[in-house]
Amino acid sequence: MAIRLYTSPVLPTEGFVHGFPERGGGVSTGARASLNLGKRWGDSVDNVEENRRLLAVHAGYEPSALQATRHVHGTAVWAVGEPLEADAEFDGLVCDRPGPALGAFAADCVPILFADPVARVIGAAHAGWRGTVNGVATNVITRMTELGANPERIRVALGPSIGPCCFEVGPEVVDQFRAVLGEVPGLVVQGAIKDHLDLRVALRTMLERAGVTSDAIDDRPPCTKCEPDRFFSYRRDGKDGGVHMAFIAMR
Ligand SMILES: [Zn+2]
Q1: In angstroms, what is the span from residue 230 Cα to ligand 1's centroid?
Q2: 113 Cα–ligand 1 center, Å
Q3: Is residue 114 within 8 Å of residue 154, measured between CB atoms?
Q4: E strand map for 70-161
Q5: Engineering a disulfide at 102: which of 10, 93, 199, 205 sits with its beta carbon 3.0 to 4.6 angstroms away?
Q6: Per the domain annotation, does 198 fall within a domain?
């Protein structure tokens, strides 16, 4: 089975490469079959390294160009070129030079890819509900702007992630989002038992408030929990399952 990439029409293609890989085309087995790109949940390091190499070859970047940081549901953003300690914890990455491939890991959380095609600045982020409500996406926009990007030109793609169809949350989570965002249509959907949160609505709202234009945001990716044949899902499979890694690079 070949590697399949979900790609977004809002991101630039000329001089840029990006993708949100589906789960097929790798060497991991069982519930991690097969393109598991995360090392933290117990898959063999050899499998993960081989999967990362296969992905790089398929996507067209050097395997050694991958820049990946440990995600902790935080909001810190690292710029390629800044000193990086081993196991440093960043949920966002930005870059203003050709070559490096920024990686953003997720399994239900939202992987986000950013690009300003004029300034040639890219970004990537991992946004679960904590990172989202605390502003990781806005922080990436801010750091890209420091590198010369303009929010009005930045394109943003939200990747496959848990959709409002499946994302049940407790009232304490809903309260945090309402405290930050106010009442936003579609943010909270009443489910059969609990409320469902739409992280895409939250992220779109925050990105637009940071100056990104409405039509530059792709916020309709597939739901990871609904499609077991295509995607890993933490809420469905727990830590026995695999992890996706979105990537973006400039040539
Ligand atoms: Zn779903």
Answers
A1: 13
A2: 21
A3: yes
A4: 77-79, 92-95, 101-106, 110-116, 121-127, 155-158
A5: 93
A6: no
Quick check: helix, strand or coil at residue 78?
strand
How far, in Å, is the centroid of ligand 1 from the Cα of 14? 33
Answer whether residue 18 is part of any domain.
Answer: yes
Measured CA to CA in angstroms, residue 135 lies from 34, 121, 131 at distances of: 32, 19, 6
CATH number at residue 41: 3.60.140.10
Q: Ligand 1: distance of its center to the CA of 227 in Å?
A: 8
If you measure from the C-alpha of residue 167 to the centroid of ligand 1, how many angstroms do you get, rounded to a whole number?
Answer: 7
What is the residue-level pLDDT of the chain in tens, covering all 251 positions?
A: 899 999 999 999 999 999 999 999 999 999 999 999 999 999 999 999 999 999 999 999 999 999 999 999 999 999 999 999 888 899 999 999 999 999 999 999 999 999 999 999 999 999 999 999 999 999 999 999 999 999 999 999 999 999 999 999 999 999 999 999 999 999 999 988 999 999 999 999 999 999 999 999 999 999 999 999 999 999 999 999 999 999 999 99
Distance 161 CA to ligand 1 centre (A): 9
User: Number of structural domains, the chain?
Assistant: 1
The whole-model pTM stands at 0.98
Q: Tell me, in angstroms, the distance from the centre of ligand 1 to residue 232's CA.
A: 12
181 DSSP assignment = H
